[in-house]
Amino acid sequence: MKYDIQLLTAAVLSIGGLVLLFIGTFITPPGQIHESLLVGFGEVATFAGALFGIDYIYQHKK
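Request: output the structure for the sequence above.
Response:
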């Protein structure tokens, strides 16, 4: 159960981070959220998702 939640969290963070990176790069929100904030949070979410995914893979190799 714990590993399923960890894998789901890793996938959501990675996909969400990539979507925010895409939005921050190509779409300019008029006065709502600055694109640098979207890009910064997208990078952090993608990195966190990657770490969760790597941890999940190494725990299941044993």
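The mean pLDDT is 76.
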